[in-house]
Automatic annotation (TrEMBL):
The name this protein goes by in its record: Sphingosine-1-phosphate phosphatase 2
Recorded superkingdom: Eukaryota
Species per Swiss-Prot/TrEMBL record: Marmota marmota marmota (Alpine marmot)
Cited Gene3D superfamilies: Phosphatidic acid phosphatase type 2/haloperoxidase (1.20.144.10)
The Phosphatidic acid phosphatase type 2/haloperoxidase domain, residue ranges: 54-168
GO cellular component, one term: endoplasmic reticulum membrane
Keyword Flavoprotein annotated: no
Catalysis performed (reactions): sphinganine 1-phosphate + H2O = sphinganine + phosphate; sphing-4-enine 1-phosphate + H2O = sphing-4-enine + phosphate
Membrane topology value: Multi-pass membrane protein
SUPFAM superfamilies per UniProt: Acid phosphatase/Vanadium-dependent haloperoxidase
Membrane spanning stretches: 20-40, 52-70, 91-114, 120-141, 153-171, 183-201, 213-235, 255-273, 310-331
PANTHER family on file: SPHINGOSINE-1-PHOSPHATE PHOSPHATASE 2 (PTHR14969:SF14), SPHINGOSINE-1-PHOSPHATE PHOSPHOHYDROLASE (PTHR14969)
């Protein structure tokens, strides 16, 4: 198609007339952003059930990659402003169709529902209601914040439903791949890196490629982490192959304190690893490509952005699945 005009990072002034809706939908919008993934997915892994976190990460990575690439191939603009007021500055430069927030929220809530149905005892109607409410709130938040049209959101939900239905028969098979082959880590690193490096080219800089690299790298890191755990038998008890029906344990103060402690210890380690690896990888890449000015522009070059993001977030994924549980065991938190 034609070269698209570069979206202006113009942000309108606005007056909030209903604070309940404003805060509800700003909060719901955050449920589709990095702050949610970097808290919810590790929390699930450390405190609830690694089996669930593995499935969630797998589907989340697939859905987000398809969504981001579709955006950059279709190049549909976001809603024009005015009439809408756009409340989020960071993603204004991205295209609209499909809404990856809607995709991620639908994928996470319904993958959780499908994966827990035959593992835990709870009323199905309650699980379904929670999945619909969670994904519904995130979808509505995209309209409220002026970032998407109804069509963008519906497109996102339908693509996700299609991907879940398409891949569901293979979920258990993919679960078993982790422990299968010594070549597994090589494939898991090479394929996502290739996909990030050959991401659809845009006429101007938008954060989509960086975000996609972050997501694919985190997914690769998690997969390698699970593989390390199996291969070197770091997991104390083998995961059950058949679904085990369990009652959801009642929430006690002790459990809550233990869960929070594990979470804080884990997040601190992850943030340290992220900072350390990011600084190191940027230093190496800058000297390798002889970059003199170490500013934001230099970071955005393809040959620097993709490798540094990839190395950083692969490390984060491995750290979350392998090193954090080892630290938990060392500190007697398991």
């Amino acid at each position: 198609g034609d070269a698209c005009p570069k979206p202006t990072a113009y942000v309108q002034k606005y007056i909030v007339k209903n604070y309940f809706y404003y805060y509800l939908f700003r909060f719901s919008a955050a449920l589709g952003q990095e702050v949610f993934y970097i808290t919810f997915l590790p929390f699930t892994h450390w405190n609830i059930d690694p089996y669930l976190s593995r499935r969630l990460v797998m589907i989340w990575v697939l859905v987000m990659y398809v969504g981001q690439v579709t955006k950059d191939i279709l190049k549909w603009p976001r809603p024009s402003s005015p009439p809408v007021v756009k409340l989020e500055k960071r993603v204004i430069a991205e295209f609209g169709m499909p809404s990856t927030h809607a995709m991620a929220a639908t994928a996470i809530s319904f993958t959780l529902l499908i994966s827990t149905m035959d593992r835990y005892q709870y009323p199905f109607a309650l699980g379904l209601t929670m999945a619909v409410v969670f994904s519904g709130l995130v979808c509505l938040s995209r309209l409220y914040t002026g970032m998407h049209t109804v069509l963008d959101v519906l497109g996102g939900v339908l693509i996700t439903v299609f991907l879940i239905v398409l891949t569901y028969p293979a979920w258990t098979l993919i679960d078993c791949l982790d422990s299968a082959s010594p070549l597994f880590p090589v494939c898991v690193l090479v394929v996502p890196f290739f996909l990030c490096y050959n991401y659809p080219v845009s006429d101007y800089y938008s954060p989509t490629r960086a975000d996609t690299t972050t997501i694919l790298a985190a997914g690769a890191g998690v997969a390698i982490g699970f593989w390390i755990n199996h291969f070197f038998q770091l997991v104390s008890k083998p995961a059950e192959s058949l679904p085990v029906i369990q009652n959801i344990p009642p929430l006690t103060t002790d459990m809550l304190v233990l869960g929070l402690t594990k979470f804080i210890v884990g997040i601190v380690l992850i943030l340290l690893v992220r900072q350390l690896v990011q600084n190191l990888s940027l230093q190496v890449l800058y000297s390798w490509f002889k970059v003199v000015t170490r500013n934001k522009e230099a970071r955005r070059r393809l040959e620097i952005e993709v490798p540094y993001k990839f190395v950083t977030y692969t490390s984060v994924g491995i750290c979350a699945t392998t090193f954090v549980p080892m630290l938990h065991r060392f500190l007697g938190l398991l």
